[in-house]
Design goal:
Strand order of the largest sheet: 3-4-5-6
Number of strands: 16
Shape: globular
Largest sheet: 4 strands, antiparallel
Strand content: 35-45%
Number of helices: 0
Structural class: mainly beta
Distance between the termini: 41 Å
């Protein structure tokens, strides 16, 4: 993790913010997403070495490696892999990692591809901490999925700013529905969408825990 100090300078703060357990594994697919809908972004990394016999000459390093899951706790990260269920305890030669709420229950799930074996679907069955909203944004003048649109969700405290995209990680593409965790918020007083073509929409008093479809206005 590199912290932007301004002026084009970045500082490595990985150890200070709790990511030191990721130093030894070889990470591939990496995705920041809200695993518990508390309103901040957590980190999921799938790992796997590129040399199948690496253990012969580098003790403590294996070809098959476990994923890493970090919970965002006030801007620092806590490694919660050990308590995240048996699916994350199984070593794999992980490569791509994509995220989507495949069962539409409000929790984001993950799909991982591995070398020499079928893909794995990880269902998020953790106790949901917060409310959520998903936004599907069919574009008119921009593009079909609204890719590149910026969404600002204002509840209480600092607004959340997210971009609609399908960017995931190494060799993968995630759901084009934008998922935002809302914590304890039971209503969104204001939701603003800025489309790639320059149009802006403001929605007020939006209900939570729904898939909201917002269509880009046509015309100039």
């Amino acid at each position: 993790m590199y912290e932007n100090r301004g002026g084009g300078l970045f500082e490595d703060v990985s150890q200070q913010i709790g990511l030191s357990s990721g130093f030894l594994p070889l990470g591939f697919g990496t995705k920041m997403y809200d695993i518990d809908n508390d309103g901040d972004l957590d980190i999921h990394v799938t790992n796997g070495h590129v040399i199948d016999n690496v253990a012969l000459y580098q003790p403590g390093v294996a070809y098959d490696q476990k994923d890493l899951l970090y919970e965002n706790v006030g801007g620092r990260f806590k490694d919660i892999t050990a308590g995240a269920g048996p699916a994350l305890q199984s070593p794999r030669v992980g490569r791509s990692l994509a995220v989507a709420d495949f069962d539409n229950d409000g929790n984001l799930d993950a799909v991982i591809s591995s070398v020499g074996r079928p893909a794995v679907l990880l269902r998020n069955r953790g106790a949901r901490k917060g409310n959520w909203i998903q936004i599907r944004a069919p574009g008119a003048g921009s593009n079909t999925f609204g890719l590149g649109a910026t969404v600002v969700v204002q509840t209480t405290g600092q607004p959340q700013v997210r971009e609609i995209n399908n960017a995931a990680s190494y060799l993968s593409s995630s759901d084009t529905r934008l998922h935002i965790g809302l914590g304890e918020a039971t209503l969104i007083p204001q939701l603003e969408i800025s489309w790639p073509g320059g149009r802006r929409q403001i929605l007020q008093d939006v209900a939570v825990n729904q898939v909201l479809v917002v269509r880009e206005p046509e015309g100039k």
